[in-house]
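call fold(seq) -> tokens
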Amino acid sequence: MIRDTESFSLLLDTLRRFTRDKLIPREAEVCETDEIPADILAEMKGMGLFGLTVPEEYGGLGLTMEEEVLVAMELCRASPAFRSIMGTNNGIGSLGIVIDGTAAQKKTWLPRLARGELIGSFALTEPGAGSDAGSLTTRAVRDGDHYVLNGAKRYITNAPEAGIFTVMARTDLQSKDARGVSAFIVERDSPGLTVGKPDRKMGQRGSHTADVVFDNVRVPAANLIGGKENLGFKTAMKVLDKARLTIAAVCVGAADRMLDDTLHYVMERRQFGQPVGEFQLVQAMLADCRTELLAARSMTVESARQRDAGEDVTLEASCCKYYASEMCGRVADRCVQMHGGAGYMQEYAIERFYRDVRLFRLYEGTSQIQQLVIARQMIKQLKR
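ret:
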């Protein structure tokens, strides 16, 4: 659902120019320094990019799902790290509060997230609980008007920069599955909360993850999302349904950039007296990339429209995330191949993108988890 076509077209045009003129020229700098430049961060905040999906009454732009995926496709033509720094504020770092938070929680935290004064982070994964998120062991024990949290989280995006964490912790200590999990808003400066050193990753320099450890961290009971215990996993799944559509859009944007760069390269690079792009086997790879890219874009936009219409898109979101992330990996591989030896050299963006996009098939649920979600949803629908 696009609420105002003219206004949204102006927004997309602005983001297209910003990506082309400001972000893409700074990609090598981000990769070299492992940091988003301060002036870029300031400009992002000034443009309202940290509050794209935060409701308008809390200072955000309140984008619909369709608008959000189209914006992601534009921004992610640049290095994924640029989107990542503000992506948690628009996604998993704020969604729990937006979807299930109390009125007081929304009023307290969402305006600051929208302005970029705070970076939000989502702490679900643990050293022993990744794909099997229901087996998490971080505990939250009620103590008067506080909860005491103990445990550790792993691979937490934007943890080094985060001001608040949405933390999934077990409140029903007798439960052995997701039904005993609650969601909490935990402030960065809480005594006993420690953020580890940034992880050294294969790619996505400039986008940071780290461990987060909770050692008798006291969290006000008012920070229990929704004010009710044992509903945290349901909140997490709502968050991930939306996040998976966003990641699908991110994959489309990255694949579009890789293919565009590659098309220009093969039409400039000459072998045997003609552009490499004139050879039929290269053309076959170009055609495969464009066809799969169009399919991923179409299914993502259509599923976003269904979500805007109020439909349950758990199955569709997993389909989009699964297909788009796998598509993006295939496009990256073909584009390296079409670059030939140059594709293995760091002076070309495709070498960096090849490493960066590998993560998309792992986070927000691996491709194999998406397959399980899709099949289980199919069986569930059949039994209705």
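The mean pLDDT is 94.
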